[in-house]
Design goal:
Layout (H helix, E strand, L loop, with lengths): L25 H12 L9 E4 L5 H8 L5 E5 L2 H14 L4 E5 L2 H7 L4 E6 L8 H10 L3 E11 L11 E7 L2 E7 L3
Parallel strand pairs: 1-2, 1-4, 2-3, 4-5
Antiparallel strand pairs: 5-7, 6-7
């Protein structure tokens, strides 16, 4: 995987093969960040990356100036890897948390400008995760919840749904907190 924009653009990051992850493809990531940079200024935005895995998306947000960025993942190997990369690259305002995403959201005291989540596609956790973010008002005014999923999920009837963007087999559904 590589960082596609910002301060660390072009930086290749090779994750160990034994991590239980499905990193967002560079093609889908590039499409999402083109979409985002045409809508908002990512710099100084508070970001929560749920199911962070390799940190692929967190690193992209950091490279584009988001701060602070919180990466949440339950797997200790993923957490260790993200910490290792963040130290190597000298990331500031990056916090890696080893937590279950839903439990984290239920106790979260952070509000964010962007919450990105990429749970396992076959998990039936989407409804509870989205509901928790929205009911707990974890998005700042005008904030975005971005949910990565496949074609087997559709969130158009969920409150605050704005639109979906497809990049190959990857779909990002975007929810927006009103101003």
């Amino acid at each position: 995987m590589r960082v596609i924009g910002g301060k660390y653009k072009g930086r290749r990051i090779t994750a160990p093969k034994n991590l239980p992850v499905r990193p967002t493809t560079d093609f889908a990531k590039e499409g999402l960040f083109n979409y985002l940079t045409n809508r908002i200024d990512i710099e100084n935005q508070t970001v929560i990356d749920l199911f962070a895995g390799t940190g692929n998306m967190s690193f992209e947000f950091i490279s584009r100036g988001a701060s602070p960025v919180y990466a949440v993942d339950m797997n200790h190997k993923c957490v260790h890897y993200m910490i290792k990369v963040s130290v190597k690259l000298g990331f500031e305002n990056y916090k890696v948390l080893r937590r279950d995403a839903l439990k984290f959201l239920k106790k979260c005291v952070i509000t964010a400008d962007i919450i990105f989540m990429d749970p396992p596609y076959d998990a039936n956790t989407y409804p509870n995760l989205i509901k928790t973010v929205l009911e707990r008002n974890l998005l700042n005014s005008g904030g975005l919840l971005i949910v990565e999923h496949d074609k087997n999920n559709n969130f158009e009837e969920v409150p605050l749904f704005k639109e979906s963007k497809s990049y190959g087999n990857v779909i990002f559904s975007v929810f927006e907190q009103p101003d």
